[in-house]
Write a structure and sequence with these properties.
The complex is a heterodimer of chains A (523) and B (289).
Chain A lengths: L42 H19 L16 E4 L4 E4 L2 E3 L5 H21 L2 H6 L1 H17 L2 H9 L4 H26 L5 H9 L5 H21 L1 H7 L2 H8 L5 E5 L1 H4 L6 H6 L12 H5 L19 H13 L6 E5 H11 L9 H4 L21 H23 L3 E7 L6 E2 L5 E11 L5 E8 L5 E4 L9 E6 L3 E11 L11 E6 L6 E6 L9
Chain B lengths: L15 E6 L2 E4 L5 H20 L18 H25 L2 H6 L1 H18 L1 H4 L23 H10 L23 H13 L7 H14 L1 H4 L25 H9 L10 H4 L1 H13 L5
Antiparallel strand pairs in B: 1-2
Helix pairs in contact in B: 2-12, 4-12, 6-12, 7-8, 7-10
Classes of the chains: A alpha+beta (523), B mainly alpha (289).
Chain lengths: 523, 289
């Protein structure tokens, strides 16, 4: 019942009922129909293996890369140090107020998605999305333990035997181990990885670490193992958003019914009987490999993640039959529509394969094939331009950013203090941000208000207008500073002044324009 | 029983609930199973929660819950932890002298922060949240000190208070009421002289006669140049800071029937370490000597 090999050339015919066929659209509430994707082989499958290797490799290994930053900073190449509020990325160190770099990267990611989607369709969904990658990984385990598609269908439908129990326990156990490794890798981004691993194993890590691992284990296991394609179809917002970014020139996975129809399971017999026969032998290989459980021949569907495994499956069948590849292919909707118009004489007739093929079997000249030049259309170039501009802006900000910063808080309570000689004093809290991992000796100078004097609380330097200040490496140094204006100078109109800091060795500097408050009577 | 009334809608092929209004039947579209199970799970969770944690209100108080949790106990534990974390610094403040605290930057910083919060609880009512004081209440930010602005002097003032009846070591001084001893015009002349030391007096003729009156009546406490005396807590009258109000009339009022501020002695109330912390904080406000 499940497996009926039927001859169509030498092609095996598979029984694959799509979850959402054109004939029978699935209702909103319906019990999930289990999908048992067949293993595909071909160039897109190979590309997916490569993407999986690279993305998982980056994810699991990055926290273990070391980067020597000297004694004052951690030596982990990528580290989000929440306790010290620092973000380390190789040679870049980001302070909390520089978080706009992260915002900028998110903007770039957004435009990157626009760019990629408008150029090559939902490539993110099909190849790079963690959900796709982890489903693939989980399927590898499932195939390894339970066997190929037919074996899995049999096992699932069969009664609970000891063998089934053993296989299921093994599968779920390995899935959970992968889940733990996924959660485990995540926490290493937030603390020194080797230290955290040791304390984690010794049950001495912070509770947050165990909580994070537990949550990510659960989500990986549930999303990648149990829910799988349901996450893409029901949970994920991207399909809805990405669909809005596609246009008629974007690449989508397309069943070329202009050459496939009329499909026939018994092509030779049908052709001999004089019937119209297309390239599709209705072997269902495309549906059997689909991880989303759809039949691409029903047309564009929300569920399709454009992973192109159906292309691989179909190409394999076409090879066996000695027909041209590309019955299912990446194509733009405008190319597809043009070919369809050619095959149906502008919709006047049913699909006529002879309109698209010459006498020798090759496609006629009017058939449009995918051309790489279509990718470089204005819409894509605009997205690329914006993406590059944001990137260059971030790069400029990164190269030109200050590593010495001055923040000043003017005392509000009291606004001013009258001294016994009638002079007026204002208090300021000065924060000096030394953003390099080295001790510095900088000068703090009062500019403007020539008669004003400055004093740093708790330091025995007395009154003056310029002081050397030692600042700790990679730290904020706070100073309480009092500025005093003598009574005789209070009425002077110009009371604006600035605090200036400068590193005499590197000539880095920063200026803060401050105000001076005084009693209304003195003004 | 349900099967007897089973009715399937012809158009959609879906079972109906059996409810009918004027020929309109309600399709039986059950909740998604996961949703229903989630709902059941919350019920189970609520039962477990009610057993584990305080929940059911009884006549006097709620049930305790088997875990024995209470938010008050949690706060107490947190406070204990916080106290334990500060214990080292607090112990050192208790054992060290003010000079030793001032000399250690880390300890001084701790004392300043602790003093700042103690100030808001105990002192801000009179001296203001910014320690700026008001009429009759000294501004603690400025450099004018009635009894001295060194850390030890500030400590002494806070610990034993000013004119605080219950403390033997309290600081005491009293200005005589000159309304009984001098004629009104003499008081006015003296006030004019005192005002002339820092501002523009109302009449130079009054100042001339006031100068002698000041030397005779006031200089013994306030000093020959009206510079005040910290031994007696006598204010400096030659500076820009006025405790009881600015201007000749305020001086006249103070001479006629003087007002004397009272500050409580704090040592017995808040303990020696907190007084030390307060002294360090007040000293740090900018006027400390």
């Amino acid at each position: 019942m499940l497996h009926q090999p039927a001859q169509a050339g030498s092609v095996e015919r598979l029984e694959a009922e799509p979850v959402n066929a054109a004939r029978h659209r699935r209702p909103l509430y319906e019990k999930r129909r289990k999908i048992f994707p067949k293993r595909a082989e071909g160039r897109f499958r190979r590309f997916k293996w490569l993407v999986m290797l690279v993305t998982l490799g980056i994810y699991y290994l990055t926290p273990w890369i070391r980067w020597d930053r000297g004694a004052h900073a951690p030596d982990q190449a990528v580290l989000i140090d929440l306790a010290a509020r620092r973000f380390y990325f190789f040679f870049i160190e980001i302070w909390p107020q520089e978080f706009f770099f992260v915002a900028g990267l998110l903007v770039m990611a957004g435009f990157g998605l626009f760019l990629v989607t408008s150029a090559v369709g939902r490539a993110w969904c099909g190849y790079a999305c963690p959900q796709t990658v982890w489903i693939d990984l989980y399927l590898v385990i499932e195939r390894f333990i339970e066997g190929g598609r037919n074996a899995r269908i049999r096992l699932d439908a069969g009664p609970w035997t000891l063998d089934k129990l053993r296989k299921r326990v093994a599968k779920h156990a390995i899935w959970l181990v992968i889940g733990v490794a996924t959660g485990g890798a995540w926490i290493f981004y937030f603390a020194d990885a080797p230290t955290l691993l040791k304390s984690f194993v010794a049950l001495q890590a912070p509770p947050a670490a165990y909580m994070t691992v537990a949550i990510l284990t659960a989500t990986t296991y549930v999303f990648g193992g149990l829910m799988r394609e349901q996450v893409c179809t029901y949970v994920c917002p991207w399909p809805r958003i990405q669909a809005a970014m596609l246009d008629e020139s974007s690449l989508v996975v397309t069943y070329n019914d202009w050459r496939g129809e009329t499909r026939s399971r018994h092509a030779k017999k049908a052709a001999a009987a004089g019937e119209v026969v297309g390239d599709c032998v209705d072997c269902n290989a495309c549906g059997a490999v689909c991880p989303m459980g759809i039949d691409i021949r029903d047309g564009q569907q929300l569920e399709c993640i454009t992973c192109a495994l159906c292309i691989d499956a179909c190409d394999g069948v076409m090879d066996k039959l000695g027909r041209e590849r590309g019955l299912i292919s990446y194509a733009t909707l405008s190319d597809y529509a043009a070919n369809m118009a050619l095959a149906t004489d502008g919709g006047a007739t049913a699909i006529e394969p002879r309109r698209v093929r010459g006498a020798n079997g090759a496609f006629v000249d009017g058939i449009r094939h995918f051309d790489w030049r279509i990718i470089f259309r204005p819409r894509v170039l605009v997205y690329f331009g914006v993406w590059v501009l944001v990137g260059l802006g971030l790069l400029y900000a990164l190269v030109s950013r200050d590593r010495l910063e001055l923040n000043v808080l003017h005392d509000r309570n009291p606004q001013y203090v009258v001294e016994s000689d009638g002079s007026v004093r204002n208090g300021y809290m000065i924060k000096l941000l030394n953003m390099i991992p080295e001790q510095r000796r900088i000068t703090l100078t009062l500019e403007g208000m020539p008669s004003a004097q400055m004093r740093i609380a708790g330091q025995a330097q007395g009154d003056g207008r310029s002081f050397p200040v030692a600042v700790d490496p990679d730290k904020v140094t706070s100073l309480k500073v009092f500025v005093t204006v003598p009574k005789a100078k209070l009425l002077e109109a110009e009371q604006g002044f600035s605090f200036r800091v400068e590193d005499p060795s590197s000539h880095e500097r920063d200026v803060y324009r401050a105000n001076f408050n005084q009693p209304a009577a003195a003004r | 029983m349900a099967d007897r009334h089973k009715h399937v809608d012809e158009v959609s092929g879906v079972e109906t609930t059996g409810h009918e209004w004027d020929g309109i039947r309600e399709l039986n579209s059950p909740m998604p199973r996961w949703w229903v199970y989630t709902f059941y799970a919350t019920i189970v969770w609520a039962i477990g929660y009610a057993i584990a944690y305080p929940s059911w209100p009884m006549s006097t108080e709620a049930t305790k819950g088997v875990l024995g949790y209470s938010s008050r106990a949690e706060v107490t534990a947190e406070l204990t932890d916080a106290k334990a974390a500060q214990a080292g610094n607090v112990d050192r403040i208790a054992s060290d002298t003010i000079e030793e605290i001032m000399a250690d930057p880390q300890l001084r910083q701790f004392a300043m922060s602790a003093g700042a919060s103690a100030f808001k609880v105990n002192c801000a009512q009179c001296h203001g949240s910014g320690a700026t004081g008001g009429k009759g209440f000294p501004n603690l930010n400025d450099d004018d000190w009635l009894w001295g602005g060194k850390p030890e002097q500030i400590y002494q003032t806070i610990a034993h208070g000013i004119r605080h009846a219950g403390d033997g070591e309290t600081r005491v001084s009293e200005m005589p009421a000159f309304g009984d001893m001098l004629a009104p015009e003499e008081i006015r002349a003296t006030a004019a002289y005192v005002a002339s030391l820092t501002g523009t007096p109302s009449s130079s003729a009054l100042v001339e006669s006031g100068k002698q009156l000041f030397a005779d009546n006031c200089a013994s406490c306030h000093g020959a140049d009206a510079e005040g005396s910290r031994e007696m807590g006598a204010p400096n009258l030659a500076d820009a800071i006025w405790l009881k109000g600015e201007g000749e009339q305020a001086i006249v009022d103070q001479m006629r029937s003087p007002k004397h501020g009272v500050m409580p002695a704090w040592l017995q109330r808040i303990g020696d370490p907190v007084v030390k912390e307060l002294a360090v904080f007040v000293h740090s406000l900018g006027g400390g000597e």
